[in-house]
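User: Adenylosuccinate lyase, Sphaerobolus stellatus:
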Amino acid sequence: MSTITTNPFTASGGDPAFQTYQTPLASRYASKEMAHLFSPAMRFHTWRKLWLNLAIAEKELGLPISDEAIKEMKENLSLDAAQFAVAAQEEKKRRHDVMAHVHTFGTVAPSAAGIIHLGATSCYVTDNADLIFLRDAYDLLLPKLATVISRLTSFAEQYRDLPTLGFTHFQPAQLTTVGKRATLWIQELLWDLRNFQRARDDLGFRGVKGTTGTQASFLSLFDGDHEKVKALDKRVTELSGFSYAYPVSSQTYSRKIDADALAPLASFGATAHKLGNDIRLLAHLKEVEEPFEKDQIGSSAMAYKRNPMRSERVCSLARHLMVLQQNALMTAATQWFERTLDDSANRRVTLPEAFLTADILLTTLQNICEGLVVYPKVIARRISEELPFMATENVIMAVVKKGGDRQEAHEKIRVLSHEAAAVVKQEGKSNDLIARIKGDPYFAKYDLAIDELLDARHYIGRAPEQVDEFIEGSVRPALASWKNSIENAQKAELNV
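Assistant: Predicted structure for Adenylosuccinate lyase:
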């Protein structure tokens, strides 16, 4: 067995940051805003705000809480390094994170030390804080998603009528346009925008429900006054920025809410993965490429390569996002009666990672959409290779219009098509079907305008009009409420 003789701490320059694992979601990819939302600083600040809201409501309803207590709590909602150290020491001693922070808060708000967390259970702060984070995380994602849709819409408008070869089964099919293909991506993103908004608006508050959801502790505090307990629940909910609280809960809010909150993110992951995959395939065809920076290296060995690394990152992280909801579903399914604690560690990972991953995907997609490069000549060349086969029906119709027999023309075209296909597949030469048609005496006698029949614009149907109608009828109305966010959005830059 080999022995490591080099001290890794010394080798890395002594920086402790390099000695422990850091999730790349936060350290490498995510926005500062989303990473901060799920940070310890924001979590414990939110706990303190919840304790303040509870104290304000209890005071308003007649409990003996002093103005000084409220004042000290308001003045100390954020933790400094010294308080984090106190909290860590307390948690090590008490093995209870909430009570450690109750004690720590009391050290800087001594007038409130005796009433912090009054009547509450730990889930008052942990669960209500999580609901706040879910809501606020969606508030960060929604304008980003609207911006991605807007950027991609500009691309669709620009290339609304540029013919391109369509693919079914990744085999050549009827023509479409580059812009029309983009509308397929946009439509799914619009559904994601709708789903995000629904999930965000559907979120409620746990409120003040007590240890098993019965509010027994608060009923005792208010000497059996049910109306005051109901008023307390309502007031704390209002102070915390929610329009309603869930009418019943156990010790926790139902973990089904987590599953419902993560479902739109998983669905968005599927959208992002398809979009990224399509761009990767287009990059292989050399028809459309994602941005490629001047000094970017595609391969350490093959200097000529332009790997679609952004789209590959999208697909990689989208798979992670799609499976995270399974954690939430399994947790919801396995809760016992009023609660078990086997949800806690799982949720500490799953909930932040889902929103951090979605945030990264949106930033990356925006970056891609802001720099997509289209190669019309490559697209035209591929069309020219396949269009002769697609044009055969139009040739047959032209013969019929000039008095010819459809079945006879069909048989002639069939024979010539097979001959041309053999040249392409067996000899590796270009498609010469049109030359064969022009040189065939049967077709020559009808004096057909063959070259006109090969105009790609005749084969795209209503694709350009569909782009226009879709944007005006579906996209612009959906983005109307996000106009300011879109206009103020900065160009997306990737950290790595």
